[in-house]
Amino acid sequence: MDKVAIFVDWQNLYGCLSVTLKKDRSLVFDCNNMQHLIYLFHSFLLPRERLFRIFLYTALPMTSGEVESFCGSSRRYSGTAELGLFQKYWFTPEMPGNTNSSPKARHEYTYEMAREFQENLMKSDFFALRLGQQRCQNLEANGRPNLVQKQVDMLIGLDISHVSFYRQVDTILVFSKDTDMVPVLNVARTAGLHTIVATIRESGFPDIKLQQYSDFRRILPLGGIDQEGQRDSWDHEKIKRVAADFK
Q1: CATH says 2-60+150-246 is which class?
Q2: H-type helices in 123-195, by residue range?
Q3: Which of 43, 47, 52, 189 could disulfide-link to 5, CB 3.0 to 4.6 Å?
C-alpha cells in the first residue's frame, strides 16, 4: 500500500468548485459539508493508496472590526479621501433599505461561515488545518478593501518539505493551480516521493509548469463525483477508482 498525503490550497480549490457549482445548478455538492469534502478527496485515490492525512490550508477572515481598524488607523488612509470612499463602500447597502446587504454585513456573514467551517474541519478525522493570516493589502479605487491571504504558500512548502525529508509518505497529492508550488514539488521529487497534481476538470487543466514537476495528473469532473457521491450516500469507502478514471 502506498501512503499518500493530500495538500489542499483551499482558497484555490474553493474558487474552482464555486465556479463549477454556479455553472451547473443541478449539482448538490456542498463545499461546507465535511462528508462531501471527504468523498471528494478520496475520489482521487486508488485502492492501493492509503490516506496519511489531509492538510488543508486557509485563513480565518479578518473581523469587520479589524478591517475598519486597519483602514481607520493606517497612516496610509487616516484622514484621506480614500478613507471616505472606504466608509461609503463599507456601510452602503447594495439593496436600499436592507442593511444586511452592505459589504460589512456580508463580510461578517463570511467570517461566521469560515469560522464554522474551520471548527467542523478540526473535528473531522484525518484533517490537519493550517491557518495563515488575512490582511488588507490596499484599498481599490471604489474604496473596497483588497483582502488577501498571507503565509499559506509558506505553510504548504514547510509541510511538504517535512514529510519529504522524513519520508513519512510515498506520495503527495496537491490540490492547487498556483505555480508557486513548483519548487516544493521539485523538493518532494528529489527526496524520492511521487508527486500528483489533482484538478477538477470543469475548472481547466493545471499550468504546464505544475504538470512538468508532477509525476501524475489526476483530473476528475465534479459532475461525475457528484453523481457517484449521491449514489454512494457520500460514503467514501464505496469508491472503486481505477487509473483509467483519471484520463
Answers
A1: alpha beta
A2: 152-165, 182-190
A3: 52
